[in-house]
Amino acid sequence: MSDGLPPEATGDQEAEELPQETEKPTVVVVEPEGELKQDPVDAQLETRLQERNAKIYAGLVSLIYLAAPVLYVGFVQAALCDNLGTNKRIANLPSSVYLLMAWFPVLIAWLVPQARLLKPTLVVSYSITAAMGAAVAVVLILGAPPWLIVGSLVAHAAVLGCTNGVAATFNWEALGRGLSEARRGKALSMAFGVGPLFAVAGSLGAQLILDGELFGWRPTAWAQVSYPYSFALLFGASAPIMALGAVLARLYVIPMPATDVQREPFKTAVLGGFKEVCSYRILLIACVAYLLVYCGNMVQNNMSLYTREVVDRPPESLVGYQLALRFGVKMLAGLLLGWILARTNPKVPLLITVGLQIAGVLWVLFVPGYWFLVAFGINGAGELFGVYYFNYPLCCSPKSQMRRNIAFLMLISAPVGLAPYMYGWISDVWSLRASFWVALGILLFTTALVAKTLPSHPKPRPEDMRAADLAEETA
Asked: Which of 103, 122, 198, 299 has the greatest number of beta carbons closer than 10 A?
């Protein structure tokens, strides 16, 4: 993705960390109270450097999408376990372990709160992810026994649960510190408009490698990869992709505050911080809304299983088309939603994405035949709730607390791992259609909660501001 960066991206470290006294163009905004005030980001970073940060963020998101068959722990890991002859519990173990590591970003946000450690932490996270992908590939290539392969998959999932969560948390802070709020919509539009195209390419590539054909086309015999080397190729490919991510993360330009945040005692920072989040009504409701819409979204597994009832075909026979629709429509929605955010306010994309989730469930319930596949495209577009339900709490957070609050939001979402089991239980006791009605009820409640309780322009509370925030505000 380096060709998407301006020439300045290859400069040395001194060029990246700009002295704060350097004169740069500033943007003056009028606060609701009528006081003239500079946007701190605009005051420290000129436009070209903010655009550079936006391109780097989009590049990192695209790389994650490209390696999604491995980094989105689930399908590939379960398929490999199935090849090893494990039971269904073991096949789902990597996914469970991955979700159980949701606490780790909170720990890292406490251990390294300083702005100066933002980039180094990102670089380390991407580097560890690359190393783990290479390690699993080596285990497979060496023909290790099944127990060792399963152990490597579980270890890989556990590490990814840590590094992916940390990278996501710190990248959101990079957006908050490296781009003004007015420019954030353009960055998200680039990242989630172009990024899903890489997911389509990665998913189709994985299908070709694992199945040996794509839409009926088979490569020549010498180009086909057999088991276990097919899985080794997928995990091994994630290593250079994530290594490139480590290089890109180093190229961020992050303005340093006059007074950096210092680590506080665990009780003050973590336990007290959680109390702060819960005491700020707007931030707490935003977190609850994210949890609910995520639970509603988890019915998508049942949507795939519903294929047999709707068109009398096994789910796996159409999964490639479902994924193509899912990521293809997501790409279009990503471009549009970023544009909408730039021209409206942070609340509007919340309502649009949950509305798309509702539309997808309704489509499944009432549209018969092969047209039901369109629901996967609608649902894919609605999956971008994961972007904009993070952006909203970011707007509620002082810069010194962005890292911590995003980490808390990830921790709060951990119970979502129970939602697929709940939908499966409902389907076994009643029917698949019953699970869709339950999801619809959750999503409708979330819509009402967001519409009635969340303001259009969220701001941090004055009492949550730290010395670093106040110094930056008065700069």
From this structure: 299
Per-residue pLDDT reduced to its tens digit, 125-170: 999 999 999 999 999 999 889 999 999 999 999 999 899 989 988 9
Question: Contact at 8 Å (CB) between 54 and 7?
Answer: no
Q: According to the 3-state scheme, what is the secondary structure of 5-63?
A: CCHHHHCCHHHHCCCCCCCCCCCEEECCCCCEEECHHHHHCCHHHHHHHHHHHHHHHHH
Name residues whose C-beta falls within 8 Å of residue 329's C-beta, 6 or more positions apart in sequence.
Answer: 377, 378, 380, 381
Domain that holds residue 52: 1-256
CA distance 271 to 338: 34
Q: Does 107 share its domain with 238?
A: yes
CA dist 160 and 146 (Å) reads: 21
The reply to whether 297 and 441 lie within a common domain is yes
| Residue type (1 letter), 128 | I
Q: Is the pTM of this model over 0.85?
A: no
Q: How far, in Å, are 18, 270, 408 from residue 263 at the CA level?
A: 24, 11, 17
3 state SS of 82: helix
Residue 398 preceded by cis peptide, ω within 30: no
Question: For residue 221, what are the contacts with CB-CB under 8 A and spacing of at least 6?
Answer: none
Q: Which of 256, 272, 290 is the last residue of a domain?
A: 256
Report the distance separating Cα 28 and Cα 230, nearest Å: 56
Q: In this prediction, what percent of the chain has a pLDDT beyond 90?
A: 26
pLDDT of residue 166: 92
CATH (domain of 92): 1.20.1250.20
